[in-house]
Amino acid sequence: MAYPFPRFSSAPQTPQYLKATETPSSWQSRGLDKPRSNPTRWLVASIAAAALTLLLLLARSSVSHPRQRDRIPFLNADVDDFFNHFEGRQDCGIASTDIYIPPHASHATDKEKHSLYCPNRAKLLDAMSGGGRHGFDAPYSPLGCHFRWYSTPEICMILDRFDAVIFLGDDTLRHIYSAFNMLLRENIALGALRQWEMKESEMETCRCENQLTRPECLLHSVADSQSVSLNDAASGHSSPYYCHRTPHIFIPIDRSPAPENLHTSFSSILHREPDSYKPIAVIHSVSLATSLAWPTATSSMDEWVTLADISQKNVPFLWVGPNAAGHLKPPSQILSQGNNALWHYTIEMAKEAQARQLDALGMYNFTLQAGSWDGSFYGQRVVLVQAMMIINWLSRLEST
Q: Are 187 and 239 in contact (CB under 8 A)?
């Protein structure tokens, strides 16, 4: 709402110690000298009035035309495939154009192209949660407006605005964190793994999709950025982060309350930089590991939000809903973990998150027509996009 501002009169005001009818002759008749002007006083008064006018004009402008506060980096260069220079691009057979199609505006100006992307965080989350696919395993189309595919340098600029990023969840979120590491290490062949502790034969076995699908490969999944920064350089197959100024970690949880040692790990990250003004972002999700138990999910939300509040830090939360069930879901799980149960869990837990003033991102629509290797979990073509969705959310958070 714009509030009216008082108008300023341009007419000079009569000094209060002079009567309006006084003249020079009346001054002389009363034995008074003609009042002398004070240049310094008038100069100070003029500057003060000009400054006040400028402040009010700026205030009126900010009230009448609120500025967009979301951070929306704009990529001017057209990129055919963001994965062109990634390790494993040819072996894994994935191009970014296979999984992400930007909005088409070939003859539009930069301003018009910019308007095709979601204007704020709320619309971004709605768009990413509510879209669909035009055919099985086709690239996902968000609802109403588009999210971005950021280059690695842009991802680093986004992460620099945070003291840390914490992924807090079960195996569904672990796979997204694995893709997050693939993007930051620019390595879709082995970027999710601690390859410095693996044999040559294991690395050959665990390339590409097998990072996510084979149990023996999951044992080597990266769990935090510090381990990569400390050990990767000594590896015969070095795959460093493009940037590593902002630490990130995956904390595995499958119950509520979680074990005390996980609370300790979480709190230590929150207190790592006690004087910093930067936020610490938390991506939180539990679903299949708790058999879609609603009370466990809400208890988990309260548990971790309470710990964050104790720190008195700026800790924004994103609740991530479960994937849809794939067509290979075992018949014995259809009733308890089928799409009807998953859909209701998605809707109700998003409401619970929003009631606690947490952001919520649904993954049900995104995975509904995607190929799953076991009916519960998804491969690189899915998790890489999910990781980019989370990076989009990070890009829209306030940095203070």
A: yes
Single-letter amino acid, residue 388: M
CA end-to-end span of the chain: 25
Give residue for tokens 């506060």.
69
Note the pTM of the prediction, 2 decimals: 0.80
State the Cα–Cα distance between residues 231 and 285, nearest whole angstrom: 29
Distance CA 138, CA 132 (A): 9
**What DSSP line would sit under 248-296, residue for residue?**
EEEEE--SSSPPHHHHHHHHHHHTSSTT--S-EEEEEE-SGGGTT-HHH
Give the largest Cα separation in the chain, rounded: 113
DSSP SS3 for 228: helix
Cβ neighbours of residue 214 closer than 8 Å, sequence gap 6 or more: 205, 206
pLDDT of residue 306 exceeding 70, the answer is yes
Q: 335 pLDDT band (50/70/90 cuts)? A: confident
3-state SS assignment for residue 363 = strand
Q: What is the pLDDT of residue 255?
A: 96
Q: Rounded distance, CA 393 to CA 400, Å?
A: 15
CA distances 29 to 22, 32, 324, Å, are: 11, 8, 98
pLDDT in tens, 233-291: 776 677 899 998 999 999 999 999 999 999 999 999 999 888 888 999 999 999 999 99
Q: Please state, in angstroms and rounded to a whole number, the distance separating the CA atoms of residues 249 and 227.
A: 10
Task: Give CA angle at 92 (87, 97), nearest 5°.
Answer: 90
Q: Please give, one letter per residue, the 3-state secondary structure of 177-207.
A: HHHHHHHHHCECCCCCECHHHCCHHHHHHCC
Tell which residue, 218, 184, 216, 178, has the closest CA to residue 87.
184
- Identity of the residue numbered 144: G
* Structural contact between residues 84 and 359, judged by C-beta atoms closer than 8 angstroms: no
CB 388 within 8 A of CB 100: yes
Contacts 24+ apart (CB under 8 A), 262-269: 263/307, 266/166, 266/168, 266/304, 266/307, 267/307, 267/310, 267/311, 269/164, 269/166
List, in sequence order, the alpha helices (H) in 237-359: 260-270, 294-311, 334-337, 339-355
Reply yes or no on whether the pLDDT at 18 is more than 80. Answer: no
Q: Is the peptide bond before 103 cis (omega within 30 degrees of 0)?
A: no
Average pLDDT, the chain: 83
